[in-house]
């Protein structure tokens, strides 16, 4: 981290917010206390001449964020889906960040395609349009294949975007370090780990070969999902800075007027977006982690189409089960079980009181039930939940950051389609189905079978491993070491028996 450079970068960030008029908008959106407003204005006003002007035709918040760079734009995209957190006006201002940013020239895009694929654009495409969508990291062109006449979408990275993003993230790391040094209470949130996670995710977005692979895997997982489709990857025309997909016709999911004109049921669409996300996260452990309106369309037949697979989330089977139990506990209003799951997973220190934690969770969950979704302020819920986790010493779980963030975004998308969509009602059947399949007797049997398979894979090596262990054991050793050895042997025997019983039981069922 380059200290002086990053200090200058952060000063310019505050100066840009002040110069573009966004400082007051941001402070109002987050309902900042008077002391913070005075501090921000005191620090920002004298240096505003150092800030970027931005595009004067844009609203203040959007103008500031676009001037600051791609990492800031990514953050703005997330906020644009949360009108209940930042307010309707702010959300509308930020929505242009999803796919309506200033494009770069089509000539630069063609040059990038030719450099990446090693073939002249005119040899591949009979038509190559001006940009039809431009976001923080790349833009998209509609093109027509010369050999087949098929229309495709060609995604091209922005020139020098890697360098610009590295500069922003370096400043974020520095800000996180400063927060940990000068605000010790922030350490439990592990800000540097959060930035590292964000950095790793977006680095994957800067290599379109990885995005193409993610799209392919996601398509294989979801090919049977009703009411959902993905464009196919055209591998011969894809590389590190260029990706080509089949063309998908549809109405942007953020255009409510167009959806109404096309006769689509917006409430049904909102509920389906939630169900799809929960199914992908719980069933597959692999989900689209950038599901804002700019990355979703509705096909003429009513199917939801997803694209832009640069940010995908992955969670392992154990974490999925923990997450499902927490959701299920909230849905059933069983706050004691939710608290126990947090302790069992190690999310809350073991020396805290589980009953007290359960009561604190009840204070978070109870106001939600029995309320119309339009009356629920997710901003207040998140604020109180933050206070609860801070009081009980719960650290930020980096493996859950992307999942939690995406859940917030997806709920925001659903609520923008229909304000009364209730996440708990939609989630109940999905979570219940997952619980039945993953935490019941069948799940135990599946776990035992998997254990037996692992043991079988090491079968040819087991005799030699046992022989080596016995030889070492025959040598003089402290009594404590010998006891530990026989405990390991006993655990191994029990594991073998459990694995064998699982295989036998499975054989009986089949």
Overview of this protein structure:
The protein is of the alpha+beta class and 510 residues long. It folds into four domains: 3-97, no CATH class; 100-247, no CATH class; 250-439, no CATH class; 441-509. The protein is built from 23 helices and ten strands. It has helices at residues 3-19, 22-29, 34-44, 60-68, 70-79, 83-86, 88-94, 106-117, 121-124, 161-182, 191-205, 208-222, 256-261, 266-284, 317-332, 335-344, 354-365, 378-391, 398-417, 423-438, 441-457, 462-474, 479-509, and strands at 125-134, 138-145, 151-157, 228-229, 242-246, 251-252, 286-288, 296-298, 304-306, 312-314. The strands form three sheets. The protein has a four-stranded antiparallel sheet with strand order 1-2-3-5. A four-stranded mixed sheet has the order 4-9-8-6. A hairpin with a 5-residue loop joins strand 8 (296-298) and strand 9 (304-306). Helix 14 (266-284) runs antiparallel to helix 19 (398-417) and helix 14 runs parallel beside helix 20. The radius of gyration is 26 Å and the shape is globular.
